[in-house]
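Hello forum,

I keep getting stuck at the same step: I have a sequence, I want structure tokens, and every attempt I make locally crashes halfway through. Rather than fight my setup again tonight, could one of you with a working pipeline run this one for me? It's a single chain of 112 residues.
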Amino acid sequence: MKYSLFIGRWQPWHKGHRWLIDQRLNSGFNVCIAIRETAQDNSNPFTPEEVKNNIEKELFDLVESKRVKVITIPDLESVNYGRGGGYDIIEHVPPSDIGKISATEIRKNMSK
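Reply #2:
Ran it on my machine without issues. Output:
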């Protein structure tokens, strides 16, 4: 089974993230959400395990049906690819109401 890969910190998961993966799900593709294993700090208040549990809870039906797979990966320095890798590189540009969502602002409000 093939998946469209999305790499991120997902700190925290929000409706902008959901919009992003829905672009592929709504086109009939499965999605793999890769959580970078970052150290906890102000920008990463949740452990990778907490992020994974939160996403799997939010997307329970999609995970159960195997439309979505959630994994953790080492923190990345870069993403690289060679020619003829057998996959596409796709950028999804959100509408302005989704694009203005800020995880930084969400984290600030969580600490209040």
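The longest strand covers residues 31-37. If your local run keeps crashing, start a new thread with the error log.
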